[in-house]
Specification:
This protein is an alpha+beta fold and about 130 residues long. It is built from four helices and five strands; from the N terminus they run βββββαααα. Helix 1 crosses helix 2 and helix 2 crosses helix 4.
Amino acid sequence: MNSSLQDSNNLTIHVDGMDVRIVVVLKGDWPAGKLDPTEYDDASQTIRVSSDYDYISDPTGWMRHEVQHHKLIVCNFRDDEYEYPYNAVEKQAYTEQFKYLRSKGVDNWLQLMPNKAQYVKILMKYWNDAGN
């Protein structure tokens, strides 16, 4: 990912031939109770990232996850409308995130994302799919 700073809170990164807009949100302005450090807004096609997350080194792969959301939206991918995280969009996003984590030598994704423990069964399937 290559990035260019547009102003103090807005970035544009160039990934796989496309530009992706990122808005850095001050930690104090991040939604209360939201544990993930990133989110994707379909309407504005923007990745929002909490200012306390290192989106450059991306230690937990959340930027990869959100970039995958962006790619799917831009390519008019049709979601199957199943509930989170069982839907086709999340399957693609988590699989991409887990491929990235595996490439970094991570062998226990749950240790990095304990707030996802309630989804361990389906996310383990995506983790295993990412290894193939």
